[in-house]
Specification:
The protein is of the alpha/beta class and 320 residues long. Helix content is 47%, strand content 12%.
Length: 320
């Protein structure tokens, strides 16, 4: 954490905001997706976010909307929620120069609205990338209906950040175990596999994808996924350069990768240059993931890369 006169240096690529209109309209859904009835979500304000950033030595946080996202089954409502959230995030970035970046949200099932919002977000709001959740009504992102969105984001060479959510089919499968404990990790993996085996990763090589929580269960399942692709000609065709090539292009944040077992698996799968720091604020306090990363067996240069340098290489405009 920040100590003494040391200037803040960390760049937080996994930092959530709770815009007032969004919270007022969807309070129960947002709290249902939170870790319990998280008081940090209820009490969220930009001032509290800045206070948490300062206490954790975070220079800049790239904001996003967490689960459940902005899609609740109604197109006009989704377009209103998306625009409100993106305008609010861009306003925070303007009001606090250099402290906030923006991953603009979309409501993916609304393809027409999403394409219009991509144009508005990049050309008017000047956002840093797009922030999505891992499924929309149990439709994962590699579904063919979303292809126009990926083609446009590829044209723009966009950064796309994914946060997990839980499909209705998987909610409450194990009583008293919240979906954030297990299902979020599996849904992140489902989203990655969906994009991989639909051919989206290979077809859209100029999109830089970021996935939360170390890629979920991907480090454990990576070998199995790669072996499956090698043994099935139909799957091999969607990744002509190989599954390993596509997976190693992904950026993964270190949020919730709390112990050496999971962290070492992540490092073996992913180049260190593609690991990013995040706090998951306000669902976790800033110190939790800072302390977990500091406890790993990293050199000072490696820690600095994850906490700052890798994010600047991906999003150089954050140096502003």
């Amino acid at each position: 954490m920040a100590t003494g006169s040391s200037p803040p240096h960390r760049i937080d690529t996994h930092h959530h905001i709770v815009p007032p209109k969004y919270f007022a309209a969807e309070r129960e859904k947002i709290l249902g997706a939170a870790i319990g009835r998280n008081q940090g979500v209820i009490d969220w304000t930009p001032a509290r976010a800045l206070e948490a950033m300062d206490s954790g030595g975070v220079a800049t946080a790239v904001t996003s909307i967490s689960a459940p996202g902005a899609w609740f089954g109604d197109v006009p409502a989704a377009r209103r929620i998306v625009r409100d959230c993106n305008d609010y995030a861009a306003g925070m970035a303007r009001d606090h120069k250099g402290r906030f970046g923006v991953f603009a949200t979309l409501a993916l099932p609304d393809v027409e609205g999403s394409l219009k919002e991509i144009e508005y977000a990049f050309d008017v709001l000047k956002v840093d990338g797009i922030g999505l959740v891992t499924n929309y009504d149990a439709i994962w992102p590699g579904d063919p209906k979303f292809a126009p969105i990926w083609d446009e984001l590829n044209r723009r060479k966009a950064v796309v950040y994914f946060h997990p959510t839980c499909a209705a089919c998987c909610a409450n499968l194990v009583p008293q175990v919240t979906m954030a404990v297990v299902e979020f990790a599996f849904d992140t993996t489902r989203a990655i596999v969906s994009l991989l085996f639909s051919g989206t990763f290979a077809r859209c090589p100029d999109i830089r994808f970021i996935f939360s929580h170390g890629g979920g269960t991907l480090p454990m399942l990576f070998g199995r996924i790669a072996a499956t692709a090698r043994n099935r000609d139909d799957l091999a065709k969607v990744a002509p350069n190989g599954v390993m090539h596509e997976i190693k292009k992904l950026y993964l944040d270190t949020v919730s990768v709390f112990d050496p077992v999971s962290f070492n698996a992540l490092k073996q799968m992913t180049p260190l240059s593609h690991l990013l720091f995040g706090t998951d604020y306000p669902y976790w306090t800033t110190d939790v993931n800072i302390s977990a990363l500091a406890a790993q067996n990293l050199t000072a240069a490696e820690l600095r890369a994850i906490e700052r340098d890798n994010a600047l290489a991906l999003l150089p405009q954050l140096a502003r």
